[in-house]
Write a structure and sequence with these properties.
Structural class: mainly alpha
Helix content: over 70%
Length: about 400
């Protein structure tokens, strides 16, 4: 009987090349598909999962100082993606479109910040001149103190003892000494440079997310469906809806409050009404934080001797902020995700406390995901479970 001179090679040959050597090792290894249901296959899957988790954790640790910039870029991209898609459908996909969108979003932040910084620098210069003057002359007691409806004598006595006397004012203004002022200036310069760098990386992240957004969304959906099933996509859509609702409920409503109060500041002759309108709009993005800015503006009006105008500003600001925080914002944020007002409020306030300004968007997004999971887990019927995405 003739023997086969060319026997069939072993199934699944494996070649392992050693670095700097030409030798190879061949062996008979079973196909991976044959191991999917075996103990060895399950162990390999767990090992691959742990390896992937290790490298993801290592990457996050490496990028920890840039994570806020990357997250801000994601927030900008999610907020502007619907408008970007409509523009892309109208004008077609071009290389210039993501660049133009990125530049426009950058200018939305840079122009108001530049105006506020310019006005703040002017006011700081005027404040330094005023401080230098009153340190030698004191602050005379205004006439409106005599018109106070209560505690008139106590307030007048405190003003006379602490503000009229230049020696007491020098103690109050000791923080403006040259040495401490230079230290504060260096610290402010360092923080401004750090924030500018993070903003630059956020804008850069936004550009690449807009340019490659369609492919990235497709890949994220593939990974989500492969890993979590259709619930993963449902959670992602819930969090994205929360970001859209937060942009409308916090940013746009806050800017609207600043616009309304800006008109009030102009009509009541508030010092620097444009600056206070911008500060009120930015502060009003966080619930209940716009009122202190309104009160500060009212105090400046009151110092000018216009008590009625100051009261009008405070009352109008309280009404605008109350309506916005208790009716408009819950409807915009909670309506897009079907979250109760308490969940929305906790997400915003706890998010700001934990993540800073980034928590304005991360907090509601996290609470939206948790709320959806709660609705899925607490569904008491198969139909309700299917409606919730389970």
């Amino acid at each position: 009987m003739m023997t086969d001179q060319n026997p069939t090679p072993p199934r699944g040959p494996s070649k392992i090349f050693a670095k700097g050597q030409d030798r190879e090792v061949e062996g008979d290894f079973p196909d991976e598909s044959a191991l999917t249901s075996s103990p060895l296959g399950r162990a390999q899957r767990r090992a691959r999962g742990l390896l992937g988790f290790f490298f993801i954790a290592l990457a996050l640790f490496t990028l920890k100082n840039f994570l806020p910039a990357l997250l801000w870029g994601c927030v900008f991209a999610i907020a502007s993606w619907p408008l970007y898609q409509r523009t892309e459908k109208k004008f077609g996909r071009t290389e210039w479109l993501p660049m133009l969108f990125t530049a426009a979003i950058a200018l939305i932040f840079l122009i108001p910040l530049s105006l506020v910084g310019f006005k703040a620098a002017e006011e700081a210069q005027s404040a330094l001149h005023w401080i230098d003057e009153v340190r030698h002359t004191g602050i005379p007691m205004p006439e409106w103190l005599n018109d106070l409806p209560f505690e008139r004598a106590q307030v007048a006595r405190w003003w006379q003892n602490n503000l009229v006397n230049p020696e007491h004012l020098n103690r109050l203004f000791h923080s403006f000494d040259a040495g401490h002022g230079m230290a504060v200036t260096r610290q402010v310069t360092t923080q401004v440079a750090k924030r500018a760098t993070l903003f630059l990386f956020s804008i850069l992240t936004l550009f690449f997310l807009l340019r490659d957004g369609a492919d990235l969304i497709h890949r994220v959906l593939v990974v989500s469906n492969r890993t979590f099933g259709k619930r993963g996509e449902k959670l992602a859509r819930q969090m994205i809806s929360s970001v859209h609702g937060t942009v409308a409920g916090l940013v746009l409503v806050g800017l609207g409050e600043g616009l309304v109060m800006g008109v009030a500041y102009v009509l009541t002759d508030t010092p620097q009404p444009l600056l206070f309108a911008m500060l009120t709009g930015v502060a009003a993005m966080i619930p209940f934080l716009g009122l202190p800015t309104v009160v500060l503006a009212a105090l400046l009006i009151m110092i000018q001797g216009k008590m009625i105008s100051a009261i009008v500003v405070v009352v109008l600001g309280a009404i605008v902020i109350f309506v916005a925080d208790h009716f408009i914002r819950p409807a915009l944020i909670g309506g897009s995700t079907q979250m109760p007002f308490l969940w929305v409020l906790l997400g915003i306030l706890a998010g700001v406390e934990t993540w800073g300004l980034l928590g304005l968007f991360l907090g509601p997004a996290i609470m939206a995901a948790v709320h959806l999971l709660w609705r899925i887990w607490s569904a008491d019927s198969e139909q309700e479970l299917q409606e919730e995405g389970g």
